[in-house]
Amino acid sequence: MSYATPPAETRQCTSCRNVLTLNFFKLDHQECRHCEGKRLADLIDASSEED
Ligand SMILES: [Zn+2]
């Protein structure tokens, strides 16, 4: 029986530099979901501007 809980695994986002738990990252991704979502939104914004 272990007494102390191990620290949650964290990873630093390569985009925003925030250190977040792995819950915020897709498997093997170095960019957090926030940045990934923002990047996708930017892409959609950029493409819709042309209309
Ligand atoms: Zn990020």
Describe the structure.
- The chain has one helix spanning 33-49, and strands at 10-12, 19-21.
- The longest helix is centred in the last third of the chain and has 17 residues, at 33-49.
- It has one domain.
- It is rod-shaped.
- Strand 1 (10-12) and strand 2 (19-21) form a beta hairpin.
- By secondary structure, it is an alpha+beta fold.
- The chain has one helix and two strands; from the N terminus they run E-E-H.
- It has a two-stranded antiparallel sheet.
- The model has no long low-confidence stretch (mean pLDDT 88).
- Bound molecules: zinc ion (ZN).
- Zinc ion (ZN) binds next to helix 1.
Topology:
Blueprint: E1 10-12, E2 19-21, H1 33-49
Brief write-up:
It is built from 1 helix and 2 strands, in the order E-E-H. The chain has one helix at residues 33-49, and strands at residues 10-12, 19-21.
